[in-house]
Design goal:
The protein has helices at residues 3-14, 23-36, 47-55, 228-231, and strands spanning 63-66, 75-81, 87-90, 99-105, 110-115, 121-128, 133-138, 144-150, 155-160, 165-171, 176-182, 192-200, 211-214, 217-225. With 234 residues, the protein is of the alpha/beta class.
Length: 234
């Protein structure tokens, strides 16, 4: 993966800001960026129809969008239980055998996922609460992510920009995380493995990012904000 595509990926997620003022315009912009950075020539089906559809949506709607673009063996599963204003967009990728499972329970949750190479897996992205935001970009191949957002107002920006990165992230309310992992030319024998648990006591600062891992290694961390007694519980 060249530097241009890495920077484009960073710009794609960084430009969105802390919250989505217009999630449908954001989905469209992310998809256009995704197509522009394709490693192969892609002629997306009916782009004007998709643009018209997204930009005509009401902020109060519940939406699940899957647009797998190219490749074979890609699978996506979305489950939205009750609630209103839950929005999911999954683009998948240009390689094969990418998989994603996303679940939303509550109101006002927003998940935006793009995957590019082959055999990338989001084994689970669960939003269990209200007003949670998750933006995830995986490129390269063999990246694995599992994310749980519990309670309300969690924000996650997770980028794994090359191969064989693993991320397990748990957020427990009012946490803001930005995580970037790169493993250029990585292999299954040299992986970044990140395990994060983020907790915030009411009344304390929630922004923990950014966390950047570049190259092979293993990292586990527990983040907390609040009193020493609160942090000691984890």
């Amino acid at each position: 993966m060249n530097a241009h595509r890495i920077l484009a990926g960073l710009a794609l997620l960084a430009a969105t800001g802390a919250a989505q003022a217009d999630p449908f315009a954001e989905i469209l912009a992310a998809r256009n960026q995704f197509i522009d950075n394709a490693p192969i020539q892609v002629d997306p089906p009916e782009p004007r129809d998709l643009e018209s559809f997204l930009l005509s949506q009401s902020p109060s709607i519940t939406l699940a969008l899957i647009n797998q673009v190219e490749g074979s063996g890609n699978r996506a599963e979305i489950e939205q239980q009750g609630g209103v204003q839950n929005i999911v967009a999954v683009f998948q990728g240009f390689g094969d055998d990418n998989q994603a499972r996303i679940g939303q329970t509550g109101n006002g949750n927003f998940a935006l996922l793009t995957q590019s190479g082959s055999q990338n897996q989001v084994t689970l992205l669960d939003q269990l609460g209200n007003d949670n935001i998750a933006r995830m970009l995986q490129e390269g191949s063999g990246n694995l992510a599992q994310v749980n957002q519990y309670n309300d107002r969690n924000i996650l920006t997770l980028q794994q920009l090359d191969g064989y990165n693993n991320a397990l992230v748990n957020q427990y309310g009012d946490t803001d995380l930005t995580i970037t992992q790169t493993n250029p030319g990585g292999s299954g024998a040299s992986v970044n493995e990140l395990s994060v648990a983020a907790h915030v006591e009411p009344g304390y600062t929630s922004n923990f990012g950014p966390i950047v891992l570049d190259g092979a290694g293993q990292t586990a961390m527990t983040l907390c904000s609040g009193s020493a007694a609160y942090c000691a519980q984890y």
